[in-house]
Amino acid sequence: MTGGIADAAARLGIALADRYRIERELGQGGMATVYLAHDLKHDRKVAIKVLKPELAAVLGADRFVVEIKTTASLQHPHILPLFDSGSAGSQPDASGGSGGSAFLYYVMPFIDGETLRAKLDRTTAYETQKLNSMMVMLTIAISGGPFLGLLGTVVGVMITFAAIAASGDVNINAIAPGIAAALVATVAGLGVAIPALFGYNYLITRIKEITTEMHVFTDEFVTRLAETYRPHGRMAAE
After folding, report:
1. Which helix (H) or strand (E) covers residue 172, if one does?
2. Prediction pTM value
3. Cβ contacts of residue 44 below 8 Å, gap of 6+?
4. What's the average model confidence in pLDDT over 92-104?
């Protein structure tokens, strides 16, 4: 940590010493800094988000209370609950003194899980696998269609020989039904396999393009986050 950041963390630790023990800084963005802390009362890890001094000075404690009440009322499975909030101590001013605005903070659960990069990569792999699993029927049609046609051809030839044997003579009336059945079966098999082959080649190309686009999005998204939020210590998005 730089001197200013370390000073702010030390001041925050002193201001909240009766409730939380500040352990380290997790990261910071344009509006706030997030610290990992230990909740002394409930013996649990929490994340404390502290507004930047310039924002805290403009917002003020009264408006902050109003805004945080709105945040606390939000209930959704994908929204972290609010444990605590308030103002305490004073942040360092521009000269490094203690004349800055009060620390405006709120406390939320600390979720120690996989990195954003790992989450996005895992989701990309899952979606790619799901797309590829939809190609099974096409591969079956491509490989099985010609064999079904071949089976039909063999059956048609067998019918032809049986008809010749039954009639005791080789004539058009005896061989036509079997030959026609063989040709129909062959055409049917190819009629299934050829469109399936064209469709498979087109769709597999699209899946590769979509997978590439997802990887590019992941790279650009994580890079943009890293540029915007400048995390300290362990990277939030590796």
Report:
1. helix 172-229
2. 0.48
3. 38, 110
4. 62
pLDDT at site 31 = 77
* Cα(219)–Cα(216) distance, integer angstroms: 5
Length of the chain: 238
238 lies in some domain: no
Q: What residues make up the domain containing 101?
A: 3-112
Residue 237 has pLDDT above 50, yes or no: no
Which of these three, 68, 96, 112, is where a domain ends?
112
Instruction: Quickly count: other Cβ atoms within 10 Å of residue 157's Cβ.
Output: 15
| Cα 225–Cα 233–Cα 14 angle in degrees, nearest 5 | 110
Q: Are 224 and 122 within 8 A, CB to CB?
A: no
DSSP one-letter string for 37-79:
EEETTTTEEEEEEEE-HHHHHHHHHHHHHHHHHHHHT---TTS
Predicted confidence (pLDDT) per residue in 214-234, tens digit: 888 888 888 887 766 554 444
State CA 154 to chain mean position distance: 51
The amino acid present at 35, given as its one-letter code, is: Y
> Is the Cβ–Cβ distance between 227 and 22 less than 8 Å?
no
Asked if residue 100 and residue 18 are part of one domain, the reply reads yes
* Domain count for the chain: 2
How far is Cα 74 from Cα 81, in angstroms, rounded to an integer? 8
